[in-house]
């Protein structure tokens, strides 16, 4: 979805639309001749965990810094809880930010790190003690209050940084690649912990990440960015299963892309002529006959077999196994078709093989088929 298309806010029980908690309109930021954020619009509801996803240089961190007040826009507005914050300095905004490096003070222990911001705000000592103890309980670090950062694991330091950001009770918490410093296994575990903590405290989170899996796991909604613009905004399911462009389909997960022309379109059921033959698609969208279109097909949606199908039907092709990648829980097969195109197919390794010989191996002739409902229609 282009940036000018904004998803409707949640509808309250009274039937009226709730006012967005974060509202961005026409936001633009340039650095010399480079437009980092290009006239974007966005609504975020209170209590959402929203992810900004994109590759390096797409503008996501610049947008986060403008929300924090570390950068100011050339044009457009940022409203938080109904108040225009576009030119308000960072220290006057109801926000806090958790940095990728965590930025913990090495000479302070855990309790002192968490309390630092409260002390700067002249909060009474007794209240500081209560709030620090409460937040340590929330992040499950009660017994670590006297430890120094260098005595903690990466995951523990991440939770201390999160506690320090939350203890000031911000209305909006901004997180810049919060899990990037963790190893893969710990990152997966911490994704669920972070989402659970956000749900408990009810604070609106905006997370910047380049990790697709992280964004899918964490977010209630997400925006895919490229070259300073939003390419699509939606839930993880909407983004993955119903991408609106080749860029989004290829950026989120992986997709086999076919170019073709619509030769029949009736009631949301399409027949498309492609280089791999006729492809049938059925997902409720009607496309004009004769229109150029691209079709996307996720590797896990394809059925792979050495046995020739008994019945000749739609969406069936054959090819030769050129490469195999064993990933433990799944295997990836690269299938070369007659026209030279390579198709990726993934299959779960659901049972442990009784021998070390694969049922499907290199140079095998294999048959591929898929359901019409699995085909993604990409018009750009």
Question: What's this entry about, in short?
Answer:
The protein is an alpha+beta fold. It folds into two domains: 22-94 and 170-249, Rossmann fold (3-Layer(aba) Sandwich), CATH 3.40.50; 254-378, OB fold (Dihydrolipoamide Acetyltransferase, E2P) (Beta Barrel).
Task: Describe the protein.
This protein is α+β, with helices and mostly antiparallel strands and 380 residues long. The chain folds into 2 domains: 22-94 and 170-249, Rossmann fold (3-Layer(aba) Sandwich), CATH 3.40.50.300; 254-378, OB fold (Dihydrolipoamide Acetyltransferase, E2P), CATH 2.40.50. 22% of the residues lie in helices and 33% in strands. The protein contains 8 helices and 20 strands. α2 (110-120) crosses α3, α2 (110-120) runs parallel beside α4 and α3 crosses α4 (154-166). It is globular, with a radius of gyration of 25 Å.
CATH superfamily placement of the largest domain:
P-loop containing nucleotide triphosphate hydrolases
| Name of the CATH architecture of the largest domain | 3-Layer(aba) Sandwich
Strand order of the largest sheet: 6-7-8-3-9-10
- Tally of DSSP helical segments: 8
- Report low-confidence residues grouped into runs of 5 or more: 1-16
- The chain-level structural class is alpha+beta
Radius of gyration equals: 25 Å
CATH class assignment of the largest domain = Alpha Beta
> Which topology of the largest domain does CATH recognise?
Rossmann fold
- Largest beta sheet, briefly? 6 strands, mixed
Strand content: 25-35%
Give the termini separation. Answer: 11 Å
């Amino acid at each position: 979805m282009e940036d000018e298309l904004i998803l409707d806010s949640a509808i309250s029980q009274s039937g009226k639309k709730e006012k967005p908690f974060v509202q961005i309109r026409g936001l633009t930021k340039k650095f010399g001749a480079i437009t980092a954020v290009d006239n974007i619009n966005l609504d975020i509801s209170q209590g959402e965990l929203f992810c900004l996803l994109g590759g390096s240089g797409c503008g996501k961190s610049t947008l986060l810094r403008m929300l924090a007040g570390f950068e100011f826009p050339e044009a457009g507005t940022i409203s938080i809880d109904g108040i225009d914050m576009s030119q308000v300095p960072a220290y006057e905004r109801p926000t806090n930010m958790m940095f990728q490096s965590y930025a913990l003070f090495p000479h302070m222990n855990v309790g002192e790190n968490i309390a630092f911001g409260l002390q700067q705000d002249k909060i009474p000592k007794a209240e500081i003690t209560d709030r620090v103890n409460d937040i340590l309980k929330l992040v499950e670090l009660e017994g670590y209050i006297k430890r120094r950062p260098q005595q903690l694991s990466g995951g523990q330091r991440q939770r201390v940084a999160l506690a320090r950001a939350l203890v000031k009770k911000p209305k909006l918490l901004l997180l810049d690649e919060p899990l990037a410093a963790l190893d893969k296994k710990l990152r997966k575990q911490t994704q669920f912990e972070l989402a659970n903590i956000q749900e408990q405290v009810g604070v609106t989170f905006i997370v910047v990440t380049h990790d697709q899996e992280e964004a899918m796991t964490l977010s209630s909604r997400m925006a895919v960015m490229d070259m300073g613009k939003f390419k699509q905004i939606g839930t993880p399911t909407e983004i993955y299963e119903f991408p609106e462009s080749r860029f989004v389909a290829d950026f989120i997960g992986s997709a086999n892309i076919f170019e073709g022309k619509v030769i029949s379109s009736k009631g949301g059921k399409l027949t498309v002529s492609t280089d791999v033959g006729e492809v049938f698609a059925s997902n409720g969208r009607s496309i004009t006959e004769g229109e150029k279109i691209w079709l996307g097909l996720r590797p896990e949606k394809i059925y792979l077999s050495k046995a020739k199908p008994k019945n000749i039907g739609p969406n069936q092709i054959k090819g030769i196994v050129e490469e195999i990648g064993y990933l433990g829980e799944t295997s990836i097969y690269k299938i070369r078709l007659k026209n030279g195109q390579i198709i990726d197919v993934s299959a779960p390794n659901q049972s442990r093989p009784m021998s070390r010989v694969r049922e499907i191996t290199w140079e095998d002739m294999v048959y591929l088929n898929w359901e019409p409902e699995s085909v993604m229609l990409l018009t750009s």
